[in-house]
Amino acid sequence: MRLTLEALAVLDAIERRGSFAAAAEELHRVPSAITYPVQKLEQDLGVAVFDRSGHRAVLTAAGEKLLADGRHLLRAAGALEGAVRRLATGWETELVIAVDDLLPVGRLFPILERFYAEGHGTQVRLIREVLSGAWDALVSGRAELAVAASGEGPAGGGLITRPLGVIEFAFVIAPDHPLAAAAEPLGEEDLLGHRAVAVADTSRSLPPVTSALLGGQQVLTVPDMAAKVEAHRRGLGVGYVPCYLVAADLAAGRLIRRTVETAIPHPQVSLAWRGGAGGKALRWFTKALQDPSVYDGIVAA
Q: What is the pTM (predicted TM-score) of this model?
C-alpha cells in the first residue's frame, strides 16, 4: 500500500504545528525523518501534497483532501489500538445496557459519570426496552446487562438476576372520564366498556407480554410509559401506571386514582445479565447498579 498511517501522522503534525521543524519536535524525530516520508508519499501518489513555492510550505488542494480523509483513518486506527489494549486487560470494547421503560434513563447518568471518570475506555450504549423486551435483549445477545427488567426472566436462559424490589402501580383515569363517577371498586363489566391504554412490548423473540387487559376490551397501544401517562391525562383510556410517574398529577387533580376489584400485583424488577459472559466493564456495572440510591423513590423493597 502506498499510503501509510505513518505518513498521515506526519502530515497531521505538520499541519497542526505549522512547520516541518515543529512537527519533528512533536514527533521526537530529526527534520530529515519528517521530510522523507512526505517526499516518498508525493512520489508514490504522483501528486504534490505541499506547495513549496513560497517561504512556507502549504498544503495543496490534493494535500488538504488527503489530510482531511486521512484523519478519519488515524482516528479509526487509534480506536482500534485502544480496543485491542482494552481487550488485553479484560475491558470490553462496548457494553450494551438495556434499561426497562419503568426506570428513567437519567438514573444511570451518575453511574456513567463515575465510570467515565475512571478512564476505562469502554464504549457504553443504552437501549430502551418495554415489558419482556429487557429479558429478550439479554437472551438474544442484543445487550449484556438489563436494568429494572420487570417480571420473571425466561427459564433455562442461564441468566443471573439480582432483585431490586417492586414498583407500585395505580389505576388512574382523567377526572372527566366516565368512570370517574362510577362506584368503587370498579368491576370487569365497568372496565370492558372503556378503552385501555397499553404499552407495546419490545421483545423480538420472547412471547410478548400484556398487562391488565381484558378480552374484548378496546386498546390504545403506545410506544412507552411517558406516552401512556399522557394518554391517561387526555382521557384517551384507563389503566395502570407507576405511582411515581403520576404523583404530581394525582396531587394536582389532573388524574384520579380508582380501586379495581381484581388489582394487578406490583411488578418485581431486577438487574440481570448472562452468566459466564462479559468482562471487567460488565462486572463494574453489575456492582454499581445494585446501589439502592439509583432506584430511590421508584422501587420499594
A: 0.71
